[in-house]
Design a protein that fits this description.
Elements lengths: L35 E9 L5 H9 L17 E7 L2 E7 L9 H15 L3 E7 L6 H13 L3 E6 L7 H12 L7 E3 L8 H11 L17 H16 L9 E9 L3 E10 L2 H8 L4 H18 L2 E10 L7 H6 L5
Parallel strand pairs: 1-3, 1-4, 4-5, 5-6, 8-9
Antiparallel strand pairs: 2-3, 7-8
Bound molecules: guanosine-5'-triphosphate and magnesium ion.
The site of guanosine-5'-triphosphate has 24 residues, from helix 1.
Length: 327
């Protein structure tokens, strides 16, 4: 059953679930005395640069990135492991007011993340103008009562130092932030410094992941995301919100992974946009995604894409479950 849509901010109730249970079902891992660990949420408006920063901090591609807002739809975790501890970074969908069931779930993901972490990074695009969305994001951070750092992103795009100082001053006045860190995920400036600041604040805690494991995202979901990323890159503004990717079948053999993906759109005209003339665009999407998946799996991949029209998938709770968009 589809619930009544709630457009108001008041409709976003924090539904607290555990994410401290990363170790659930796993044997406790050996950690040296004084080991520190904790969960760190990356939140902010759509397009602020959360996923790009997550990838940069982790040093691997964990989350897909695009210049379209609302690229991230689920809670994606990436891990920084150091000899002295482990920071588990939680990427979240951009903060916006929910309309569709999918968007409502996306905002639930944000509020859950905020209430179950040790530290919040509020990301603000240094090149963006302050707007209502910023206040909305800030209110969520304030109401969580958690320690927060203000991260000003994309400073490589701010040409004048004086402009940067002005931005830092005006943005940091809004809340008692623990730290204010201007950085660029593109050039890497201040990214290591941020990692150091995060580790300084981690409480003593267990080792949640083996040192060589940098995400808990199932490969199935990551593969679907890598296909969606290529769709976002290949198509214009009309498609991001209406496209979903599901892995229907995955066959493993020693030398080859065969992956069969279903791409959902809402109308047949959108199907045409993705497929392109003579199927050329779909072929291009497939071959670029395949190269990325092969790099991660370290083996050959056969990737088959199929586009289907499913009119109401954004309100289809079952389809959302299959995509890992938690309810
Ligand atoms: N110049 C520059 N661009 C950046 C930087 N960080 C991110 N971007 C770009 O900003 C756009 C949005 O980046 P994402 O990481 O997808 O942003 P996000 O906050 O995860 O967005 P949502 O998932 O939609 O909420 C992409 O085009 C990135 O390449 C940066 O440090 N410098
Ligand atoms: Mg993102």
């Amino acid at each position: 059953m589809i619930e009544h849509e709630d457009e108001s901010a008041a409709g976003i109730e924090p539904a607290v679930t555990q994410i401290e249970d990363a170790g659930e079902g796993r044997r406790p891992l050996e950690a040296p005395p004084g080991y520190r660990s904790g969960f760190v949420a990356l939140v902010g408006r759509p397009n602020a640069g959360k996923s790009t920063l997550l990838n940069r901090l982790v040093g691997e591609k964990v989350a897909i990135v695009s210049n379209k807002p609302q690229t991230t739809r689920t809670q994606i975790r990436g891990v920084i492991s150091r000899p002295e501890g482990q920071a588990i970074l939680v990427d979240t969908p951009g903060i916006h007011k929910p309309g569709y069931a999918r968007n409502r779930r996306m905002m639930q993901v944000v509020t859950e993340a905020l209430h179950s972490v040790d530290l919040i990074l509020l990301l603000v695009d240094a090149t963006s103008r302050p707007g209502a969305g910023d206040n909305f994001a800030l209110d969520l951070v304030k109401s969580s009562g958690k320690p927060a750092m203000l991260i000003l992103t994309k400073v490589d795009c701010v040409k004048r130092k004086t402009d940067l100082f002005r931005i830092i001053e005006s943005r940091s006045a809004a809340h008692a932030f623990e730290e204010v860190v201007p950085l660029s995920s593109r050039t890497g400036v201040n990214v290591e410094r941020l990692a150091d600041l995060i580790f300084e604040r981690l409480p003593e805690g267990p080792k949640y992941f083996p040192d060589d494991e940098y995400t808990d995202q199932p490969m199935r979901l990551l593969a679907a995301e890598l296909v969606r990323e290529q769709i976002l890159h290949a198509t214009g503004d009309e498609l991001p919100y209406v496209t979903a990717v599901l892995v229907e079948r995955w066959e493993e053999s020693e030398s080859l992974s065969k992956i069969y993906c279903l791409i959902l759109v809402e109308r047949s005209s959108q199907r045409g946009i993705i497929v392109g003339k003579g199927g050329l665009q779909l072929k291009e999407i497939g071959s670029k995604a395949r190269v990325e998946i092969e790099a991660i799996l370290g083996k050959k991949v056969y990737l088959q894409l199929h586009v289907a029209v499913r009119e109401h998938w954004r309100n289809d709770e079952r389809a959302l479950d299959e995509m890992g968009i938690e309810g």
